[in-house]
Design a protein that fits this description.
This protein is mainly beta. The protein has one domain (about 5-285): Outer membrane protein transport protein (OMPP1/FadL/TodX) (Porin, Beta Barrel), CATH 2.40.160.60. It is built from two helices and 14 strands; from the N terminus they run αββαββββββββββββ. The protein has helices at about 5-15, 70-75; strands at about 25-40, 45-60, 80-90, 100-115, 120-135, 140-155, 165-170, 180-190, 195-205, 210-220, 225-240, 245-260, 260-270, 275-285. The protein has a 14-stranded antiparallel β-barrel. The model is unreliable at about 1-5 and about 15-20 (pLDDT under 50).
Length: about 280
């Protein structure tokens, strides 16, 4: 892993150390993210852009909490809308077939904590469309798929403060073909306003022909309510008729609130076959 980039990420996010006073509550936020992926041994360029708006049913209190985790710790129910765009562009594959593929997506959903219980539900619908245009030995190949929708449901429990355990389900995909378990735990450490976020997820996909597993472990340390730095690893294994492959990806990330209402985040990941970086911003009202 290119650990030499970790100091750059941390230094960039912690450049401003003075925090400006602002209101202790917010009820809506807008976040935007942009990222690029570099494939090893390929000339392809891959980029992703996403924009999301969230509205909370009740004001979210940020007092005495890490700002980025305030809604999670309060169990704040909300609705959201999002839109995204990704582009795969191949300049020279080595086989004379330059071209590109574009994917568009949009989503709407709700996150709902059932009052006076430990249960949590998330439901949403995602629509996507796709188009590609490639050349091969002078022949153009074009493909377009119009908007297609898929619903998803997430069911979880919050047995203690700061802990959530959940699983996610998708339309037209049987649980036996794709099952997953995820956990997130945010807890205070010490008495100086420092917190720790721990995350773990495991997914197993098996359609009768191919089988794949993915395990992710990550953690974030909140130096104070405004600044966090984190790292993690994702391990993928794949089996197909005797062919087996393992892949690891290591990542670092940081999030800095320059005021109580404006944040910038950075991330970098390096894997066995690719690397990627991302930058994002959040504005709260």
């Amino acid at each position: 892993m290119k650990v030499k980039l970790l100091p750059v990420v941390i230094a960039t996010c912690s450049f401003f150390s003075v925090h400006f006073a602002a209101a202790n509550t917010y009820q809506s936020e807008i976040s935007a993210n942009y990222g690029e992926t570099n494939l090893d041994h390929s000339s392809a360029d891959i980029s992703n852009t996403n924009l999301q708006g969230t509205y909370y049913f009740s004001p979210v209190d940020t007092a005495n909490r890490p700002l980025v985790e305030s809604a999670f710790l309060q169990k704040a129910s909300n609705v959201y809308v999002s839109g995204g765009y990704s582009q795969y562009k191949e300049n020279d594959s080595g086989f004379g077939s330059p071209g590109e593929a574009n994917t568009y997506n949009r989503s709407v959903g709700v996150n709902f904590y059932i009052p006076d219980t430990i249960f949590f539900l998330r439901a949403g619908i995602t629509e996507s469309k796709y188009k590609s245009d490639f050349a091969d030995n002078g022949t153009r190949y074009r493909y377009t798929r119009d908007w297609d929708s898929q619903w998803h449901v997430q069911a979880g429990i919050t047995p203690i403060d700061g802990l959530m355990v959940w699983s996610q389900f998708y339309e037209d995909i049987d649980v036996s073909e794709l099952w997953n378990i995820n956990a997130k735990y945010v807890l205070p450490i010490g008495s100086n306003g420092q917190w720790l976020n721990l995350e773990a997820s495991y997914a197993n996909a098996d359609d009768g022909y191919d089988e794949a597993q993915m395990l992710t472990l990550a953690g974030d340390y909140y130096l104070d309510s405004h600044l966090s730095i984190g790292a993690g690893v994702t391990h993928n294994s794949y089996d197909n008729n005797g062919y087996h492959d393992n892949q690891n990806e290591y990542f670092v990330r940081a999030n800095q609130y320059f005021t109580d209402n404006f944040a910038v985040n950075l991330s970098y990941a390096d894997g066995d076959y690719e690397s990627n970086w991302g930058i994002g911003a959040t504005l709260r009202f």
